[in-house]
Amino acid sequence: MQAKMRNGLLSIGLFMAAIALTSGEYVSDSNKTTLKPSTTAVASNTTTPHPNTTAVPSNTTTPHPNTTAVPSNTTTPHPNTTAVPSNTTTPHPNTTAVPSNATTPHPNTTAVPSNATTPHSNSTTTAHTTPVPQPTPPTNATVGHYNVTSDNKACIMAEFAIKIVVNNSEVNGTFIVQPSKTSSSGSCKDTSPVADMILDFKEGQIALKFRNNDTSKMVYVETLEFNLNYAFKSGAKMNYDGKNHSLQLFASAAEHSYSCKSVKVFMGKGVHLHFTSNKVQAFNIKNKEFGKADLCKADQPDYRVPIAVGIILVILIVIVVIAYLISRKRRTDGYQSL
User: Fold this and answer.
1) DSSP 263-313
2) pLDDT tens digits, residue range 58-71?
3) What is the pLDDT of residue 319?
4) How far apart are CA 205 and CA 208, in angstroms?
5) Cα gap 157→72, rounded to integer Å
């Protein structure tokens, strides 16, 4: 009898539970959670993603109605949804999650390192060009003072202005040696009959070789050389050189100096060296002073013209005197004595 009553009560309970589930008014005794029709409670520590995703339960998954009762420690997600844990992030559809420390460049662009320099577009690097050789500005010939010493004694002293004149089928120009940009050097010995002087400047050099001739007792330059690398025309830099070794240039007696207003020396290939306002002495220099000057022939006085003029005047005077005497004699012969 009691068994039948228990079975009846159980049947009634199951019937009432079915009615409650059907009407959506089931109440949990332990947590008092009310379930509305066709909805499920989402746990507070989860993030609800968009629909059409799969629900991931924290422990268990509650199926649709008409299933067994859900325990109090479970959460029923929305239908056809997946619960995502709180420590996850749901990205947008069809996108890729980018780490927080990464930088997303613009589309179709290339990331440039921070220590790199991006040049301007269409920029051109200008290469350094070599300056075009130009002639030096015109200047006047200036007298330079050049010395060569040995054991603190002057063995060559020279004062002159120098011009290098080129006149050929290619070039017609003049280069002037500037004393302020020229240095002198050389060698000499009291026991040697030869002494050298070298004049160096930016564009080249001039070398003079002196000879002390014991036979003729004369001192002179026996060899003259030059080298010049210069542009007489814009952009046309050329090398010129020459040597003349059959000279007796700046010749003077021993212990004398040479003096001349102008000397012109041919060096070949249409090149001449012009020395002006010259005063030169080599060997036997005392107290660093020039000795007695021996003038060049061009500067020596020419007495031939005055002598010729004097002779002509004497002849004229003689002719006049003779003519006078003849005329006086004729007048005397014309008178007779009484």
Assistant:
1) EEEEEETTEEEEEEEEEEEESS-BTTB--SEEE-TTTS---HHHHHHHHHH
2) 444 444 444 444 34
3) 93
4) 10
5) 125
| Cα distance between residue 71 and residue 66, in whole Å | 15
- Please report the pLDDT score of residue 183 as a whole number: 95
CB neighbour burial string for 228-252, b if at least 16 within 10 angstroms, e if fewer:
bebbbeeeeeeebebebeebebbbb
Q: In this model, does residue 209 exceed pLDDT 60?
A: yes
H/E run at residue 221: strand 218-233
Where does 144-295 sit in CATH, by number?
Answer: 2.40.160.110
Give mean pLDDT, residues 282-307: 88
Tokens of 155: 């063995």
DSSP string, 7-71: HHHHHHHHHHHHHHHHHT--B-TTT-PBPPTT-----TTEE---SSS----SS-----SSSPPPP
Type and span of the H or E element at 146: strand 144-150
Question: Above 80 in pLDDT, residue 281?
Answer: yes
Give the SS3 label for residue 329.
Answer: helix
CB-CB contact of 36 with 65 (8 Å): no
Q: Are the C-beta atoms of residues 141 and 272 closer than 8 Å to each other?
A: no
pLDDT digits (tens, 9 = 90+) for 223-245: 999 999 999 988 888 999 999 98
Which residue, among 89, 260, 76, 310, has the nearest Cα to 160 in the 3D structure?
260
Q: What are the residue boundaries of the structural domains of the chain, listed by start? A: 1-84, 144-295
Q: Classify residue 53 by burial, with Cβ atoms within 10 Å: 0-12, 13-18, 19+.
A: middle
